[in-house]
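P.,

For your records, the input lines for the assembly:
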Amino acid sequence: MNGWEKLILYFQYPFVRYALIVGVLIALCSSLLGVTLVLKRFSFIGDGLSHVAFGAMAIAAVFGMTNEMPLVLVVTIVSAVLLLRTGQNAKIKGDAAVAMISVGALAIGYLLMNLFAKSSNLSGDVCSTLFGSTSILTLTQTEVWLCVLLSVVVTAIFVLFYHKIFAVTFDEGFAKATGTNAGLYNLMIAVVVAVVIVLAMNLVGSLLISALVIFPALSAMRVFKSFRAVTICSAVLSVCCAFVGILISIVGGTPVGSTIVAVDIAAFGGFSGAGIILGGMKK
Amino acid sequence: MKRRICAIVMMILFVMMFPVSCGKKQSNQNNSGGTSEIDVDLTVLSSTMVYSEVYNMMMNPKKYIGKTVKMNGAYAIYEGENRIYHACLIADATACCSQGIEFQLSGSLKYPDDYPEIGSDITVIGTFDTYMEGECEFCQLIDAVIVEDNF
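Structure tokens returned:
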């Protein structure tokens, strides 16, 4: 059976179709925010928040919650707000705060799972949460609809408030001076980032989320210079990489999360090359 | 701007041409069991697909009851209080998780003489069914036969 025949066979499975739909939507949302986060020097916040989400999932597992999503969302949103909004004025700032929350939540989460978890396959649960494993291929129909709904909300917020997000991203001080409520928009960005992080945990796992957020944005920045062009290119590239990555992983039997990230890295290499060539042409 | 758009199109094509058929080789062996009467043939799926499909079988067993399943994996046992449980285990792509399906071979076979070595690679064909033990529902393949093994 060749690769094409395998693909036709695999597309008959509903979970493969669900994975592609959710994967593409998550990639789109994370890439939209990636540009803002990279420009605001918050590239690593995805990593920190995903570890917070891991800690929240551990607490949900300890309490035997069947639907952990609400708790994980609330805890991650609160952490994102604390990091993004109060980051500048707090005693522990920026990268130090992210690092502290990141490793703290990871350690406490793993400790709680070890001490109180009821699952018989603890290492499997932890591995699945950290690296994504096959989570994206084991989604229920309800989870798919939730992902679709949240993705639509995130994309709508980004499109509707594009100009404000642009202003707050590039020059917060100037935005404030011109009457923009920068605090409110930072809060909105924080909430949306948290939602995307929780969604993306299903796709690539908590250790690889940063790649999904930063690689498409950085790749686009190699070639384009305007905010709009970088955002559009980043979104298209992220969707293509996620789609190709999922196809490779299901046909080749490779881990989904790391395969998507590998495709993102390949695309970054290609775009870097294109950027160098285009730069040379200009000179 | 046109140059940039051309460069982007080239980059996207480059990514799309990434070899789709790379990865681990499939164990797509046809053997005495054949595949003509198989409803769910897990031996033709990649490890990622097998893990996901077995997960679905465990989560939604009612959909699969009565279907003939063919699977390939490592032979494992669990010695319970009243009987020995025989299973075929499949590891996922990250090799940290494994899913298994219990099977009961047809005929009056005795363990360990009539069974393969623990950990050996086996291919099992059987009818998917569920049973209750205590308050829990378990899945198994009944009237199963091992069509390929190392003993």
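Two observations worth noting. DSSP finds 13 helices and no strands in chain A. The domain at 3-282 of chain A is CATH 1.10.3470.10 (ABC transporter involved in vitamin B12 uptake, BtuC).

Regards
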